[in-house]
Design a protein that fits this description.
- By secondary structure, the protein is of the alpha+beta class.
- The chain is built from 18 helices and 13 strands.
- The radius of gyration is 40 Å and the shape is elongated.
Amino acid sequence: MISRGLFYFVTAVLLFVGILLVAYQKITFDVPFVPDVQKKIWTVEARVEFEPRSEQAAEIKLALPAVQPGFTQLSQNTASLGYGVNYLKKDGSSYVEWTKRDANGLQILYYRADILVDDSSNNSSMIVPALEPNVESEPYNTAMIEIAQTALSRSSSPYTFANQVIHELNQDNEITSMLFAKYKRAELLVHILQLGKVQSRVIGVLDLKDGRRNQKLKPYVAVFNGTEYKVFNPQNGTTGLTKNQLIWTDNGNSLLDISGGKNALVSFTTISNSVSAIEAGQRKANVDMAAGEELVPLSLSALPVEEQSLFKGLLLLPIGVVIVVFLRIIVGIKTSGTFMPVLIAMSFLQTSLTFGLVGFVSIVGVGLIVRSWLSHLNLLLVARISAVIITVIALIGMISFFTYKIGLTEGVKITFFPMIILSWTIERMSILWEEEGYKEVIKQGGGSLFVAVCAYLSMSSFFIQHLTFNFLGIQLILLSLVLIMGNYTGFRLSELKRFKPLAEQIKIYQNGDQTEREASRLSKELAKIKADPHNTYREWKNEVVQKLNNDQKSQNDQK
């Protein structure tokens, strides 16, 4: 016999492993605990067009989207007929390179990427830039130094310094007019920040707007404070990016480098679409596995659709089993057959609950009448069961035929009822009727239907179906729950009603012959023991000895 300690150890291991598997699916593949959660994926297409130079090989290098918090790139591809394509990585930035030896006429190249809005992503390819020496010519250098000194005196950190510089640049005066005549605003801001020993660089930001075409990158400025940074809008000084803004170039690299071509132009088109969180998590995991991470997918989504549908139903069976075990062992509801209610509940999933209940009661009722007639023929058990099976099949066939004829297509689904189980149920109920009477048949039949309905309500829940299909660790958790409930040997909840008279008596007197409540008496005795344990023990001992002497004396007098 297995010791209790080993039993509890195995149960705890099953529960712990099941929870770990659920956590693994949630963290690694970002599978949500609730169904119908949607994630947004942006499809961004970059269109590159240029005119090739005659008798020169064309080489085009396009910067790819930067790695940044809040986004994860799922896939990328190009459309470039006749071009060689190569993906490169240099100085922390990624590029796609197109090459062709004899390009003629206007050339158009496409790059497309699917980017997932991912709140759990915290990675960034942004590198802290080095401070560059000041090589600006006069009078621009003096003008920038004046702005830097004014802003520096009004600031306390790199970020406030950047705000003050932007404020000074927004002033309409001769200095700013002279500087804007030579420099673009973002580049000018970086130059002035460099003079104040603040590391910064220009980055290219793309606005993600659904269905927008011919978009350009907007210049923003990343200002660093150590290894941390904030993004500033050089026009108005606002910090941060909105959730629909994507950093495309982040390390001072140019968007497009071209050799053997002229009049190059890059434009962007953005489209958003929603996918299920499960699909998004799977695609994200595929990216991680392609990058070399060792991940073990525990999802059934990789199976063919037909097998997925099969397993989706099978994985619901343990839910029904747990319901049956709880209602039979803990609650104490009697059923006809151990797991017959689970199979009936599975049938209810194919039919509707109302029609399933009507069909079950009709088949069992008619089957009991036929079985009662067969009992008078004194048939052997095998023949009797075979006759009942044929009767059940005939009943199911007739119900399906007549309901279809009158327009109730739900009646055809009654064929999902387990015919063999129904036949054995009819046989057991018939024997129970003969031995215990119709009341016990109604009690067990009603209990079976009640358990079947409870199992159906649980298994038909989209939330339960989502959990069992996407988190295989749930099966181990259910197994541990069954083992724990199977170890229960106490009273069933339905049996507690037997103690109602005793409970009423306890409310008056804890023992039938006492005038003081037992709780009050025990409280007094406990206080007495705490106050003087030795004398209390001595008194009790004397009382017992005196009682024994009195009993002995009474016996001697009777003799």
